[in-house]
Specification:
Blueprint lengths: L12 E10 L2 E10 L5 H5 L5 E9 L4 E8 L5 E4 L1
Antiparallel strand pairs: 1-2, 1-5, 2-3, 3-4
Length: about 80
């Protein structure tokens, strides 16, 4: 990874592909897992109310760059 320039920084981690099942259907996307939280379960069980997903595809084939899903509506999360 290149060195950040003055005023820039990089967050180290990985984008985990996931399939999130909600009452409205399946959502396919990526959850960012920072280096300090190594497991998907840590993201699912933290205090935040929403799961942030990027590069999302919904059941009808629609594509969304970013989607925040309320954790109360999540039935299951599978690594994709």
């Amino acid at each position: 990874m290149p060195e950040p320039k003055k005023g820039e920084y990089y967050v180290v981690g990985r984008h985990q592909p996931v399939v999130v099942t909600t009452p409205q259907g399946d959502i396919i996307g990526y959850i960012y897992i920072p280096e300090l939280k190594r497991r998907l379960s840590e993201i699912l069980n933290d205090e935040r109310a929403f799961l942030p997903l990027t590069d999302v595809t919904v059941e009808d084939g629609g594509k969304i760059e970013y989607l925040a899903i309320n954790k109360r509506f999540v039935i299951t999360v599978r690594e994709g």
